[in-house]
Amino acid sequence: MARPVQLAPESLALVLSRLEAPAAAAGGAEEPGGHAVFRAFRRANARCFWDARLARAASRLAFQGWLRRAVLLVRAPAACLQVLRAAWARRALRPPRGFRIRALGDVFPVQMNPIAQAQFVPLAEVLCCAISDMNAAEIVVTQESLLEHLMKHYPGIAIPSQDILYTALGTLIKERKIYHTGEGYFIVTPQTYFITNTNPQEHKRARSDESREIPAFLTYLDTESGI
């Protein structure tokens, strides 16, 4: 099992609230962002020249994050964080201008447990991704151009032989994940329209509707035909 990865070190969270809604905000102006609030907080405490330890600790603060509902996350060396805790405990910590500090507390390090991946990517997944990319780039997808695309953009995979590629493409067509026309291979999308020969009633209905105007975005396919 992979070891946990630390994404963010231990930090302090300041839960803030506005003293009053600013006049500019009433006119539709945006609220100050996290970086602006952080700079105001650091500036307010760095100017506490009568408390050299607090001023020095504030100057070493770094912005860690900004959460919704006005929660500011700050980080600093452990000694500096302890100075801020002590200042808050004795009600000496100054809030950013226009705010008051409702609460202050420790946020434990944020860790991530990596999820392991399989060593190999399924060929069907690679083919679908490659065909989708080529369709988006308006590149004609033939078996030859598909192999060239795989060699160029997927250097880490074993390039399939012609027989394996042919079989894999045929399977994807049967699963209705891709389709083939005279213009190459394409990814099946929700807008793709199929005509099959498996249901006589449906086939008869499709023929009876031939006189109707067909939307331009629909693609007609016969899934019984070969590659």
From TrEMBL:
One of its GO terms (molecular function) is RNA polymerase II transcription regulatory region sequence-specific DNA binding. Residues 112-190 form the Winged helix Storkhead-box1 domain. GO terms for biological process: regulation of transcription by RNA polymerase II. GO terms for cellular component: cytoplasm; nucleus. It comes from the Eukaryota. PANTHER family: STORKHEAD-BOX PROTEIN 1, WINGED HELIX DOMAIN-CONTAINING PROTEIN. This is Storkhead box 1. It comes from Pipistrellus kuhlii.
